[in-house]
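Please decode residue identities from the backbone states below.
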């Protein structure tokens, strides 16, 4: 007869499972239905005004959600300021982020409508969805109920954010450490369909790699010449489109470029080094109106938006997104 007693290990796993489910149970679509029913409409209106005058912020604002969730979870810690320059936003991987003033503008509008109700972490998540829609990308229902973290460390982006130079093993490992799958990796990489990057993020592929004349042998030779014409040795300021030709349109052309060995970053090229990610790239690069990318992207963004969330009485609801209470 089986023993009715549970092993300490099993009890521990059950506790972890219950805690995880408890947190996610409080993260839901329509969280602000009673406390701030116009919340998403207010965010949408502010973003409509912003995108009319600054459409180039769509890429950085989408990336901001990624960078927030991969460090301490989706808790708005990427927004915090430090008087000593030791916050996440001061760390090298985050120096290219832009649009903090947009988050502040949204927060001001929400505080006027319903003071102390909507977290900065949720604002970042909703804004990421709205800039995707504004660039002709997919709509998905954003789960809300996140609360804001109080800690932001300079060092943590360095170890938690996948670098542009990452190989496929590193990428898979880093995504799995956040509870995200290999499919989430290749789908979320598709966010590179909008936005730009500084030459310094990929110049090593042009001048300091293992191929002829220091170029990366995994990068298309014609594309190398085009990039070299834009990015000279040591260039730290020039911006290059991540998805040439449709930098402000959210579409599946990113996968067509990667399939042709024209992914801008080494981390893009690395997606061809795994059977599952390569198969997805081939599927999307061959797809037209029947592409599953939009649906997949919404699902993976929801998955990412659940990483490390603070709910219930954890954390706080900041009045100003750059400052703890």
């Amino acid at each position: 007869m089986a023993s009715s007693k549970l092993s300490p290990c099993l009890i521990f796993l059950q506790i972890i499972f219950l805690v995880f489910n408890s947190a996610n149970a409080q993260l839901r679509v329509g969280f602000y239905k009673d406390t701030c029913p116009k919340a998403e409409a207010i965010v949408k209106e502010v973003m409509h005004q912003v995108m009319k005058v600054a459409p180039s912020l769509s890429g950085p604002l989408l990336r901001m959600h990624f960078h927030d969730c991969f460090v301490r979870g989706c808790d708005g810690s990427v927004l915090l300021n430090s008087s000593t320059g030791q916050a996440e936003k001061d760390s090298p991987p985050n120096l290219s982020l832009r649009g903090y003033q947009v988050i502040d503008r949204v927060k001001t509008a929400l505080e006027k409508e319903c003071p102390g109700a909507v977290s900065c972490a949720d604002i970042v998540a909703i804004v990421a969805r709205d800039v995707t829609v504004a660039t002709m990308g997919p709509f998905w229902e954003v789960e809300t109920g996140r609360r804001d973290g109080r800690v932001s460390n300079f060092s943590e982006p360095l170890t938690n954010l996948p670098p542009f130079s990452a190989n496929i093993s590193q990428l898979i490992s880093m995504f799995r450490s956040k509870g995200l799958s290999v499919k989430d990796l290749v789908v979320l990489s598709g966010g590179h369909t909008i936005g730009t990057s500084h030459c310094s993020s990929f110049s090593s592929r042009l001048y300091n790699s293992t191929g002829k004349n220091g170029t990366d042998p995994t990068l298309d030779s014609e594309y190398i010449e085009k990039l070299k014409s834009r990015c000279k040795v040591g260039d730290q300021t020039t911006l290059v489109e991540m998805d040439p030709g449709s930098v402000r349109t959210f579409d599946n052309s990113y996968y067509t470029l990667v399939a042709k060995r024209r992914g801008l970053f080494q981390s893009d090229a690395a997606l061809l080094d795994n059977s599952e990610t390569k198969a997805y790239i081939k599927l999307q690069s061959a797809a037209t109106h029947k592409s599953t990318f939009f649906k997949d992207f919404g699902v993976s963004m929801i998955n990412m938006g659940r990483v490390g969330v603070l709910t219930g009485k954890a954390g706080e609801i900041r009045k100003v997104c750059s400052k703890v209470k």
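Observation: The chain has a mean pLDDT of 92.
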